[in-house]
Amino acid sequence: MQEFESPTYILDFRNSLNRSTIESAKPNKEIRVLVRPEDDPSAESIAATGKRSEDGTEFHVVVVTTAGHQSHTWNWNWLQDAIGAYRDSWA
């Protein structure tokens, strides 16, 4: 029997409100963010929980699905650069 792995989820920058919500995240406060499967750019977004670290240097995301949960941490400055690059590429 073949085992299937759940997809790796990434922040969904396609949604401008999601980008704005992430950019305005305050340290140590949980927010709702949208994620999508990394290998399927056209997939529908699902909700996840994001939280900027207390010192503001990292952004942590937890995705919970029926297949389990995943967590990822991004450097805050890198994340801001990635959002800006995405926005510029679609301007």
Structural class: alpha+beta
General shape:
globular
Number of helices: 2
Averaged pLDDT:
92
Report the end-to-end length measured between terminal Cα atoms: 46 Å
- Unreliable stretches: none
The count of DSSP E runs of length 2 or more, i.e. the number of strands, is 5
Q: What share of the residues lie within helices?
A: 10-25%
Largest sheet: 5 strands, antiparallel
What's the number of domains? 1
In order across it, which strands form the biggest sheet?
1-2-3-4-5
Binned strand content: 35-45%
Q: Could you give the order of the helices and strands?
A: EHEEEEH
Helix/strand layout:
Layout: E1 9-11, H1 16-23, E2 30-37, E3 46-52, E4 58-65, E5 68-75, H2 76-89
Antiparallel strand pairs: 1-2, 2-3, 3-4, 4-5
What does this structure look like?
With 91 residues, this protein is an alpha+beta fold. It has one domain (9-89). The chain contains two helices and five strands. It has helices spanning 16-23, 76-89; strands spanning 9-11, 30-37, 46-52, 58-65, 68-75. Strands 1-2-3-4-5 form a five-stranded antiparallel β-sheet. A hairpin with an 8-residue loop joins β2 (30-37) and β3 (46-52). The radius of gyration is 14 Å and the shape is globular. It starts with 8 loop residues before the first strand and ends with a helix.
Question: What attributes characterize this protein structure?
Answer:
single chain; 91 residues; alpha+beta; five-stranded antiparallel beta sheet; 5 strands; globular
